[in-house]
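User: Second chain of the day. Same drill as before.
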Amino acid sequence: MNVIIGMIVVLVGVMGGFLLEKGNLGVIIQPVEVLIIFGAAIGGLIIMTPMKMLKHVLKGLAGIFKPKSFDKKKYIEVLTLLYEIFSKMRKEGIIAIESDVDDPAKSAIFKRYPAIMANHRTLTFICDSLKILLTIDIQSHEFDNLLEVDIDANTEEDMHPYHRVNKMADSLPGLGIVAAVLGVVITMGAINEPPEVLGHHVAVALVGTFLGVLMCYGFIGPMATLMEHYVKEEAAYYQVIRIALVSFVARSTPQIAIEFARRAIPESERPGFEELEKILKGKK
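Assistant: Same format as last time:
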């Protein structure tokens, strides 16, 4: 919603100021200039992006309008799930969770957390990490490195759409100049026309530069930055899960492992100590 509101504010600010200065809005509306600029920008995006990655770029752009929410509720949910798993492992032994991680859909623990069950990446990350503990006697620092590699690989892949859109944004001012130059070429071809006709051609040519700069700094650039923010926000979520898992493997009690993870949550979304403790006590 904030993306749409921001776009409206940009348009109202720019176009409103132009109209207040008694500008002719009809001169600004140039579909051909838009075609030249965005046609070239999209073409450049296709050139620099492998076909298999194009769908990720489109998904990333769509994601800014319906982003994943990594709020306090989501952090509490995953920490509570991990606490239940850790408590079961501590009381009954690590082998007790084998059926849970092999088939989470049939697990009494996982069924209590439908949001996590619906998130394939989170579910896979947790279950695959626990399967390692079931099959390998691994040191905590090795386990930590393994999870870090997993998170970094996914984050790097998720950043590709941001890089592509950001590069497209950077190209827009230059493509606006291309459109302006083409407008100047047309103007020079009509050099014998009356001044009012030449003036119109020059105005249309300048609109190309205007649109390129506006689209770069008013729309596409901010959209790319928002994409980057969401990728980093998701990476922070998985870092919290990693810290909980590694702390437990390092022989921390379930409560201490969860506290380590709680401290890693960004302060704006971090539940309070008493708040989380009350929820965890209800799971004992």
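Residues 44 and 80 are 46 Å apart (CA to CA).

User: Great, on to the next one.
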